[in-house]
Amino acid sequence: MASLARPAPARTAFAEVRFLGMLERPLVLTGELAWLGGDHLRRSVATPYREQSDIADGTLRVQRGQRPPREVSLARAPELKGLLLSFQALLSGDAAALADAFEVRADGDAARWTLHLVPRDAALRRRVTAITVDGAEREPRCMRLDEADGDRSVTLFGAAAEPLPTPHATRAELDARCRGTAAR
Amino acid sequence: MSLRARLVLLALWLAALATLGVGVIARLHVGTDLRSFMPPPATADQKLLMDAIGEGPGSRLLLISLSGAPPERLAALSRGLAAALRRDAHFAQVGNGAFDADLLDNKLLPYRYLLSPTLDAQPLDAAYLRDQLEQRLDDLGSPAAALLKPLLPRDPTLETLKLAERWAPPKSPELRDGVWFSPQGEALLVAQTRASGFDPAAQGVAQDALRRAFAALPDAAAATLALSGPGYFTVIVNASTRAEADRIGRVTTLGFLLMLLAAYRSFAVLGITALPLASGALAGLAALVLGFGEVHGITLAFGFTLLGVAQEYPIRVLSHRRAGATALASVRDLWPLLLTAIASACIAYLAFYASGVTGLKQLAVFTIVGLLVAGLATRYLLPRVLPARFRDAADMPGLGALWRWLRALPRPRWLPALLAIAAAATIALAPGPFWQNDLAALTPVPQPLLARDAALRGALGAPDVRYLLVLQAADADGVLALSERLAPQLDALVARRALDGVELPSRYLPGVATQRARQAKLPDRATLEAALAEAQVELPFRPDLFAPFVADVEAARTLPPLTPAAFARTPLGARLDAMLVPRDGRWLGLATLIGVRDAAALRAWTATTGGAARLLDLKAASESLVAAYRARILRALAVAAVLLVLTVTLALRGARRAWHVLAPMTLATFLVLAVLRGAGVPLSLFHLVALILAAGLGLHYALFFERDTGDAAEQRRTLHATLVCVASAVLVFGMLAWSSLPVLRAIGLTVALGVGFHFCLSILMAPHARQD
User: Fold this and answer.
1) Domains of chain A
2) Is 2.30.30.100 the CATH number for B398-429+654-772?
3) Do A72 and B147 touch (CB under 8 A)?
4) A16, A73, A84, A131, best to mutate vs chain B, most B CBs in 10 Å
5) What are the residue boundaries of the structural domains of chain B, listed by start?
6) In chain B, what residues touch A62 (CB-CB under 8 Å)?
7) How do strand B224-228 and strand B61-67 relate by DSSP bridges?
8) Smallest Cα–Cα separation from B768: which of B665, B661, B649?
9) Which of B178, B315, B502, B634 could anchor a disulfide with A73, C-beta 3.0 to 4.6 Å?
10) What is the pLDDT of residues B357-370, one digit of tens each?
């Protein structure tokens, strides 16, 4: 994992598919994730709408179009905190930070690996049951985040995001893509 | 009297004192709320002031800062402390910036459509719902989705968030890790105590509870807790005044005892002379316990000081004992004079009773009962328990020489007249204000603490402690409606930077009319379902997802409007409750103002409201209250002065003799005033109390020096007694005069100066000295 380490800023294109109980079909978003150093993470959505989210200093700030930004404290949302911690650790390659926040189990070999993360914080674990990160060589390919209510979001990084997933994607298809066993 | 009889009487006396003491202490309840030392309010502003002082939301607010640890640790401590204080009965409200989504409980949740202003501008139609649902869908793709997901089915237009935003403090500090932080990196909290801000005892209990709650948090030792706010100042000022008074008191008590020992050379006598004063003090306390129930701490402190006059009685008895005469016989000789002195002092203190202020009435009862009992004990008990053996004070070495020297001093007749003119000129011409109307100036808060308070108050957007906006209407709903009507005008004033913010009662609860108007705009079930279906076309939301929303809107259509009483059950109920006050059959709304910059603009605006809104300047109201209060006391003192003249004239059976007693006393009092004025000291109530005390002592000196005994030994005894009295008074009050606290310095300096002047003038103006 130490091989993940890279200097800031680290940028990577992403595609995210969200399977939500409230919706009849998944949401698909694309854009760019950037780690700007420190604890500053920026998530810029390009499609299907433009939105920029900044996570820094324990606060999430979401700016969509011309609307006034919405600010949310991370203390209110343990899953945001978990997300931030894992993204940050992955993008900055900080293995120690990752191990601080999660119980980490690794599978596979250097060419194709999987990290299974379970939040150590009980409050976070009540909302986020597991995070799975798949990668190849020095690149993370995909991150799956499972919530306690059955919702799941799958984020594909870099080359793994191509071709873009459609709104008809299923969980199984995406799992396969994450593991790199299909469509590659 | 035999030794045996003396000891039996002494034992009985002590037993009686002990019984009285135990009884009094068991029933004595000491109050510390400063308001019982304030005069009865006369004007409407003063009445509000008395409520606002201590009870006002601003004065009950403690500002809390946590520093000295990394931000995330401080944030955790802030959350822990807020949670602990919310469970603590000493606190009505706690804020640390953390978002509280549960401001309305489930049962009140449908009321959001009546409380939120959304419907005023916007019907719940298909177009609006479509726009809202599209935004919600985008929200679900954002990192904030996890937060909004639980709200969505019931509240797709996010009214609960709009209300939470509306109810957040008007101006709040920066959030870090979800809690308030100052620009200097301190975590900030505010806590509203239930105790009044100017009750040092109750505030002390609440602040101790706060510190204990903080210390019990994990890792608390790593950070520093600091408090500010009126309640905190009350406690520290009270503690530092008491600590300094105690420290000075210990030194002076020791000096006083040593001096009495030197004067009378007997431990037994020393112990016995304390008994009349102790009897007087206990009797005074007993009278307070019987008459008032609760005794104010200041009454006790002042009362014991004023009662110090009574220590003169046993000193006179001891010093005036003649060889060959029993103590009883010499007391009988002195009694007419002592009685005159006691009666005069009682008359002076009656003036306090006439002030109509509870604390001062208590003071009058305590001192008058105390003086009478101490005097009677000196007359009827003390001589019967004094040891038979004693030293005649007239034989004290050096006393004769001193007396001859004093008698030989030149006494130009024009001197008193010159002094009187000089004093009058100084009093009249000295620059600077005559009166001190700002009570806070006497118990000043250290400047660094004030500076920190201002910084914290600014950072937290805490309400201004000086100004309050008062709305008036026939009933509570009228106040709410008025508040809604005035809100846009106040917002305009905020935009013009006349002030930073305002917290109106209608921010929390709109009036019934507004609620009904919003209710009338809510669509019925069929209309809403049709609009929702239209809005949802081609959006991926599950069709039945918003059933809870439809149910809530349907429920809201028939709800009875929310009243302040029903709102009281919500976490913000206490806040609204403190803002709505019934008064004389009408209702007042107290709106707190934040960061008032231009009071004149605010006042000019209130003039345009036709009396519906008034700007209450607590400082001006309190100063007018103090001035009215002083006028009352001065009037009472004038009456007391007349009575005093009559008493002394009657007791001495002649205006000429009375003049010899009253002239030096009056002149000395004016000299003290002149010195204070000349030194630029504005006079406060404390100075007045001290002047009266000094005048009481001066009256004693004048009475005794005026006495024509024609006996050189007796004159030496008078000198001895007076010297002991003067020395002890100068010792006790001279020490207070060195205090760093203005209130103690005011009393100490005035009495010490007064005693000095009274003594010198009594001697210089004594009629016999001149005749010799």
Assistant:
1) 2-179 (2.50.20.10)
2) no
3) yes
4) A73
5) 1-31+265-391, 103-168+518-560, 398-429+654-772
6) 142-144
7) antiparallel
8) B661
9) B178
10) 777 788 889 999 99
